[in-house]
Specification:
metal-binding; 19 helices; two-stranded antiparallel ribbon; Cytochrome p450; about 50% helix; 4-stranded mixed beta sheet; globular; about 525 residues; Uridine Diphospho-n-acetylenolpyruvylglucosamine Reductase, domain 2; alpha+beta
Amino acid sequence: MGLTVEVLSNTVLLCSVVWLVWIFLRIRKRSSPPGPAGLPFVGVAFQIPEDKQWLKFHEWTDLYGDVVSTTVMGQPTLILGSVRAATDLLDARGSIYSDRPNAIMAGELVGWDRGLGYAHGPNNPRFREFRRLFNQFIGPRACQDPHILTMQEEETRRLMMRFLRDPDNFYRHPRESTGALILRLAYGYEVARDKDQDPLVRVVEVAMQGFAKASEPGAFLVDNFPLMRYFPEWIMPAGGFKAVAREMRRQLDEMYDLPFEFVKTQMLSGKAQPSFIQDYLEKKQAPTTADDELTKAAAASLYSGGADTTPSSMTAFILAMCLWPDVQARAQHELDTIVGPSWTRLPTFSDRDQLPYVNAIVLEVLRWNPAVPLGLAHRLTQDDVYRGWHIPKGTVVWANIWSMLQDPAVFSEPQQFRPERFLDKQGRLRQLERHEDPSVIGFGFGRRICPGMYFALNSIFIGIATMLYTFNISRQRGDDGKEVLPSVDFRGFISHPVPFHCDIKPRSEEAATLMKRAVAVDLEQDL
């Protein structure tokens, strides 16, 4: 009898505990933002596609609202689909929303956590030093420095020569040009002009391809199952993700070390050009190994932040000009009016304020195809409450930049390329509110906003203005003589149009001659 009572008591106690846990979870769930429930343990991991994750997130914000809560492999996850929500949390509460989640593949195994992108913050001294260095070297004031502006104009002229010499391979030219520009800025390195591809540009391109692949949400299972990082390489076919990470890390180490050693060698021989690294080494009389490592990481972060994002915008611009030739014609008319119709000079930054429609095209490119549609994830460092909802410490937060820039309530007909949406009735650039400005939204939020945004905006503006002034971009014709309409399809963690075909031809013989002459003058000045 006593045993029966004890068993009954234990059963009642167990049921009570289960009931209380169930009630607690119900209350906790009710106090969380709405979102897809997913499956036990795995959550919504298998609902997130390998590519274009921003479209799935956008689908959820359409269903549940601009703040979506879910779990991925047990990890609380928050998706922000509006500028209001991102501003409220990532901007206004940046002190607790500026950390990064542990990126097992890209950060820990490959080593990108040494740089700014995956550095923990905001109280991390390394993070603060990165921000200080970047603001000093490519912040808003630094980006008005005539030396940097001249460098961007010169590299843009060289980009135009690439289009002129080899228009069929237009897709790769912006990446090569941007790589050359950042190598020059960071290391004072001039790319080889007599080779199809500079060897150092190739080193950093390969490392950047690894960065983009390792950073894709869901690309590697180890990011969802962190314990897998302890698996020995030999138990996986061909070494599995461990072998991939080892090779990516080797490529990243090359990107860190080779250009840094180049600057030191140039300084010893008295040939070093002004650059980020040269400035650092001159100021540091006796740098420690830790100093060198931090500066290598900062210089590499300059590259990782811009080497693929600016080309994303340039190739999206070329695609848009194929699809909307009337936009191209209007911009060319504006350029001919301001710069002159006879091709005696190329556009410069001094023309910028007089080219409202060209500036509007830049904004529309950033809106139509945000270079990094999801940005990099943030991580909440303490419990928070927003709109009455509980958000637990450790939550991973994604700002769906693509969703914000495709909001039809803000941008009518968002899939159409319409630069005039940024102009007033007099054809001048409108004063944009935060929620309608792609030049701000597209570069992220809070303390994690891209520190190279001003440098990138300069590069995109001068690239677009110069290309519009000197080239006609048009659709190719098929064997039947009819125009072939390129598809609008963007893919990748850093979003690029899928490869497409188009015709890129100089607007006139005078335009072609002007480009050749301008590059020849640059070469003479370098000698």
